[in-house]
Design brief:
The protein is mainly alpha-helical. It has one domain: Growth Hormone, Chain: A. It is 81% helix and 0% strand.
Length: 477
Amino acid sequence: MGFSYAFSKAVTVFYKEIQEFFGASYSEIAWISSLLLAVMYAGGPVSSILVNRYGSRPVVMFGGLLSGIGMILATFSTSIIQLYICIGIVAGFGFSMNLQPSVIVVGQYFLKNRPLANGLAMAGSPVVLSTLAPLNQFLFDNYGWRGSFLILGALLFNCCAAGALFRPIGPNTPKTKKDKDKAIQDEDPEKVNISLVEPSKVVIPEEKESCMTKFTRALDLTLFKHRGFMIYLIGNVVMFIGFYAPIVFLAAYGKHLGVDEYSSAFLLSILAMVDMIARPATGLIANTKWIRPRVQYFFSCSIIFNGICHLMCPLATGYLGLVVYSVFFGLAFGMVCSQIFETLMDLVGAKRFSSAVGLVTIVECVPLLLGPPIGGAIVDTFGDYKYMFFECGAILVAAGLFLFVGNFYNYRMLRKEAEAESRDQKEDIEMKDEQNLKKHDYDQVSTDEKAKNDNEVLPAKDNSEKCEDVNGSGHQC
């Protein structure tokens, strides 16, 4: 998760030099991070399907191999388009194979302390970023951007080692016929005896499934009818338009203000170090009994706080101001990232979480693709970064307010639906009790009438029988 999230931010250290090398504009250079993030999120459904089919371990190992190959191929690029393909598409798809299984496996392992576990796992991004940003500047000074990309590609192969350490949950499925027979015999010996003795009588129907059926089984499309999921999805789509652009242009903004290269790169390290503390701390707070039932509101307030930081950024005109902005930005960014998957699992539940992550990421790839280039276009148009920060801040504040109001409406409707369901169940119970009472009264009346009729007939029969006993005739005594 560290390489998946941090790499798109750390590689921005090379942007100014790549821009000068290829003669590209700010908007054109921003497409590298946009494509990388968009493909990383767009590959979510494919990654979810592969995880459901093969498990997390092989998918992460394949992702590490693909991302490393993409960065090594970028070393030989002779145009900006080739960088789009190698870094944005090839490496981005490899990162999607790393990200999704890492998120899913945390949800499988933890339930009680899941917010804290998500916060600690998401802290991988700032841990890697705090090291990678100054390292990239060092590599560039010594080897240039081409040599740096070659070394970074080799580092990305470590994702294969990390994926190999993923331990699957649950018993392994037996693969050989002998193992299958043994497994079935342990569960139900009679079935094995029947299958071995009378194989002709055991018929297993084979049903062919269409591609659409398999797709809908892997990705639960009914989530689009889920009110809470749709509120979350809309709010996040708006948020991601302005979420990553400030990070993409932070180092470049420092250089624009006259700050030296190492100090500009160190701004990302400051952001990462604060982010590193903020993510597990936020997870710990979100796991408390006061916040966890209201985690959706906490998430909305974190987004609003993030937007306010960007609105205040243009007030920083020197390096000290940028350091203060980086501290608050790292805190706000860590708060949002720590909860982004926890709030989704809180809405849809652990059973539908894998499908929900896949659907959310493929929709969110559109704003991730457009966000940084829009910010770059604003910088190209006005020649100043402050308008880009204003745009991102306003978008984040609007997204946070929408999520806050939307979740308030969702919780209110859920309470009304629960009350209506409870009332309906109570009415059903009362109706059944009334029906049972009427049936009981009817049975009681029928019993009384029967007894009455029996009393009218029985005495004559008893007298005649008595007389017959006395004198042998049916006459009265």
